[in-house]
Design brief:
14 strands, 6-stranded parallel β-sheet, Rossmann fold, 3 domains, about 45% helix, globular, alpha/beta, 5-stranded parallel β-sheet
Length: about 425
């Protein structure tokens, strides 16, 4: 059996499923102390600490002088990538940019008859740090994460971007990663990974100027570092392991559904893949397909472990119950693999991203369609959203009250201040009455 075979009849079934999934949020021993020590070390020793950690975990010959990738090396990487692959990266970047252009926000103003002007200034942060995991010993960097994090920051108007990624054992970075940076016009790339990279971006070193916002996925050490530094810098989100939920009816293709579940299960042994359907025959067929397809994957061991621990086909009495289950799950990715997804989408309250119908699998959104693939996990879609242009902007209120407004309302404002025992507040406004 590749995954669990469960049932959901209604809200009374949710506590058992919730208890089953709860340990995904607590994947092991706490690493807070280890990460806190790394943060303190980088803050104290700067580049020397970065080079020390890099030599210990990534490249044995890394030096402080080699932390920064020369701009010429970044530009030259484009020639090391095939024209066909560069065309694909260029088209994906254009799709992502076009989608995020729709998220732009403008400053705005309102005026009153007495001359008062109120409004909001929308401004980008000055500088952003983008973390890109290196994958297997730096051999499979998450290039799509660079696209998904850098482009919204650029659309927001951020003027300075720094990319951090761990080096390969020979000290190099994957040319596809560097070529993507060149494609995006980014010329600041630093060879550093894990919690020490996050620390450098937050505190700054001789090589790395501090940033205002840090974005990008990573392992438990990266995530813990971001959490511990939240407040000193802005972060995109505290991300957990990946997950997918699928609602399917008899019109769905079981082979496609299994492939979609495996697209998440191959990420991590903690990844979750759940199918909710009222069709028992479909659920059986999907489990058979999961067993067949898992064996064919290069990452079969990871996918099998994820499915065994956190995968399930869940039989529901109808699509209404499946929707109820999904709204409790609040999944990162939701596929509506049904004959008429538009009839259901309005009833989805909580999901990071929703994929509509049989020809919109989750990887289309991961790489190419345009919406961001950095999404809330572990049910945080109940209150948070995908990474967006808004991640990289801040808003300042503007208050320009006229003499008439201030004089007319000073007694009321002063009274409110004195209700709170703040006499100086009251006198500040009363002084304007003349």
């Amino acid at each position: 059996m590749p995954c669990r075979d469960l049932a959901y009849s209604g809200p009374e079934s949710w506590p058992a499923i919730k208890d089953w999934l709860a340990p995904r949020a607590e994947p092991g021993a706490a690493v807070d102390d280890a990460v806190a020590a790394i943060l303190a070390d980088v803050r104290a020793r700067g580049d020397e600490a970065l080079a020390d950690y890099g030599r210990r975990f990534d490249c044995q010959t890394l030096t402080t002088a080699a932390l920064r990738v020369p701009a010429a090396e970044i530009a030259a990487a484009r020639a090391q990538v095939s024209p066909q692959d560069m065309d694909i990266l260029t088209e994906a970047a254009a799709n992502i940019r076009a989608f995020h252009e729709g998220q732009r926000e403008n400053s705005w103003w309102t005026t009153r008859a007495d001359g008062t002007i109120l409004g909001q200034l929308v401004r980008p942060v000055d500088r952003v740090g983008l973390y890109v995991p290196g994958g297997q010993a730096g051999q499979t960097p998450l290039v799509s994460s660079l696209l998904m994090n850098a482009i919204p920051a650029q659309v927001a108007g951020v003027g300075s971007l720094c990319v951090a990624s761990p080096p390969r054992p020979d000290g190099s970075l994957d040319p596809v990663l560097l070529a993507t940076a060149a494609l995006l016009g980014i010329d600041e790339v630093v060879r550093m990974g894990s919690a020490w990279a996050v620390a450098a971006l937050a505190y700054g070193t001789a090589t790395v100027a501090p940033v205002d916002v840090i974005a990008g996925p990573g392992n438990i050490y990266v995530t813990t570092a971001k959490r511990l530094l939240m407040g000193r810098v802005g972060i995109d989100m505290i991300a957990g392991p990946s997950e997918i939920a699928i609602i399917a009816d008899a019109s769905a293709n079981p082979g496609w559904l299994a492939a979609d579940m495996l697209s998440q299960a191959e990420h991590d042994p903690l990844a979750s893949a759940i199918l909710a359907t009222p069709d028992a025959a479909l659920a059986r067929a999907v489990r058979a397909e999961l067993a067949r397809q898992t064996a064919l994957l290069p990452r079969a061991d990871i996918a099998a472990r994820a499915l065994a621990a956190w995968g399930a086909t869940i039989l529901t009495p109808d699509l209404d119950a499946a929707l109820d289950l999904v709204n409790h799950l609040a999944p990162e990715h939701l596929e509506l693999a049904v004959a008429d997804p538009w009839a259901l989408v309005g009833r989805v309250r909580h999901a990071g991203a929703i994929f509509m119908g049989h020809t919109s699998p989750e990887p289309v959104g991961d790489y190419f369609a345009g919406p961001n693939h950095v999404l809330p996990t572990l049910s945080t879609a109940r209150f948070s959203s995908a990474l967006s242009v808004q991640t990289f902007i801040k808003k300042s209120s503007v208050v320009a009250t006229s003499p008439t407004f201030t004089a007319a309302n000073a007694p009321k404002i002063a009274r409110l201040a004195r209700m709170e025992g703040l006499e100086a507040h009251a006198r500040s406004v009363e002084a304007r009455r003349g």
